[in-house]
Structure prediction request, 211 residues.
Amino acid sequence: MKKTVLLLSALLTAFAVVSCGTAGKTDDAATQNNEIVQVTEAYEGSSEETAAEVTEAAKEFSIENLSTFEITSSDLGEDGKWKDDIGSLKKKGNNVSPQLSWGSVEGAGEYVIYMIDTSADNWMHWKSVSKEIDLPTGWAPAEEYKGPYPPAGTGDHNYEVYVFALKEPAETVEGRFDTTNEDFFEVIKSLDNGGGNVISYGHIAGTYAFN
Prediction:
């Protein structure tokens, strides 16, 4: 009888030890899982905040908030008319992109050039990327430049050139070439890479007519 009592006592003690060990491991595992959940939630929260900041920066981008630099062109006459040569071969001219010059912009890694006809829903005639700041007449290849060809009887059309100075190459250079871009000032937001990539811009404009 005494041996039986001692054996039961030993078994109960062993069970208690095992139970305590298991409980301790369970508590440790629960603590580790809780820490993982907290770290994951913190990471997800940080990612959401970063994404929100980028989205907000993209929303805030506006050409009106940018500084400007001067552009000159030897192909723009003192009368405010572009020379005939820049016109498309469909009408008159030699379909050569106009000469452009501007001063180097501090911090700029490259420049994006657009020409749009604001008299025809921002019809895009030029879309190029350049690291140069002095572009000779005819610099742009045919796949990036299509000279003005306003329809007969529509009078003078206004052709505007924009040059955007970028810190880094744009992830995408949007804009529908040789067609309308009513949303041009939304299109150029693509150059900002989500925020802070567009440093400044230059602008020059002139008219061109069918005859």
Remarks:
- Residues 1-60 form one domain.
- The two ends are 124 Å apart (CA to CA).
- Residues 2-60 form the longest helix (59 residues).
- The CA atoms of residues 4 and 128 lie 95 Å apart.
